[in-house]
Amino acid sequence: GVTVRTLTNSPKRKNPFGEKIEAFPYNFDKPDALARSLEGTEVLCNTYWVRFNHKSFTHVDAVANTLKLFNAAKQAGVKRVVHISITNPSLDSKLEYFRGKAKLEDALKATGISYAILRPAVLFGHEDILINNIAWALRRLPVFGIFGDGQYRLQPIYVEDLAELAVKQGDTKENVIIDAIGPETFTYRELVSLIASAIGKRRLVISVPPALGYVASKVIGSLVGDVFVTRDEISGLMENMLCVSSKPAGKTKLSEWIKSNAAVLGQKYASELARRKDRTTAYSET
Q1: Which 3 state secondary structure label does DSSP give 138?
Q2: Neighbours of 106 (CB within 10 A)
Q3: Rounded to an integer, what distance in angstroms lies between the CA atom of residue 145 and that of residue 281?
Q4: Is 136 helix (H, G, I), strand (E, B) or coil?
Q5: Distance from C-alpha of 182 to C-alpha of 211, rounded to nearest angstrom
Q6: 179: which residues sit within 8 A by CB, 6+ positions away?
Q7: Do residues 153 and 141 make contact, with C-beta atoms less than 8 angstroms apart?
Q8: How many Cβ atoms sit within 10 Å of the Cβ of residue 21?
Q9: What are 100-149's pLDDT values in tens digits?
Q10: How do residues 4-28 score in pLDDT, each as one tens digit?
Q11: Beta strands 186-187 and 153-154: pairing type?
Q12: Angle at 231 between CA 99 and CA 135, to 5 degrees
């Protein structure tokens, strides 16, 4: 009974919802058109971001575009914004990803619009990248290298749990910041071992210096035409930026989800760049 529209850079991508969801381009270069696409909107759920810097997109661009989106929301009279951030954002972070997310949190607060800021660590679910590509590597490589001792932690949340939380927060008015983490905490070494066991691949898991691990990831990336992992992502992991002490906001256990999806997990590589270059094909078909 609720009208839903999406703003997207891929308005021609296959839409499984048909006429139930209207699609409009982001129009970051046309602020008035961007505002018009938000007219009549009660709640804006913002998921726009980029994972890494690339010649076609950067964190600086993502911050600037999101600021335009917030301004357009205010101009259009949007009553509430549910904003997807990241665990442990900080203006003082040396990592551009976390620093940019902190800037946007502050900017949203300054708009005066009612807000809910959700801070997930790692997402998992169908069409995800991180968990799937770990499984992909485990299926194909005889040895799996982890950065350092692998004892740094992360708290993955199921994408549908995050969506449910976003919808729930859209129905309220209180300004809140929620660490959107799942019910399980893993060390990175535990996560890799869990995935390997679930897909039935016994692999030697070895510790490697972060610099060497990054070089290896560059080689993998060149083979698949993608960015497998970035230096900042390695640093964020190893500095425990994807772990907090809050109570879980999600209920779905990654350990159970992996077992249920083991047959398909990692069968195909999930490419970030392919999704951004191909703006028409559904993710599940790439």
Answers
A1: helix
A2: 10
A3: 32
A4: helix
A5: 30
A6: 87, 119, 244, 246, 249
A7: no
A8: 12
A9: 999 999 999 999 999 999 999 999 999 899 999 999 999 999 999 999 99
A10: 999 999 988 888 888 889 899 999 9
A11: antiparallel
A12: 110
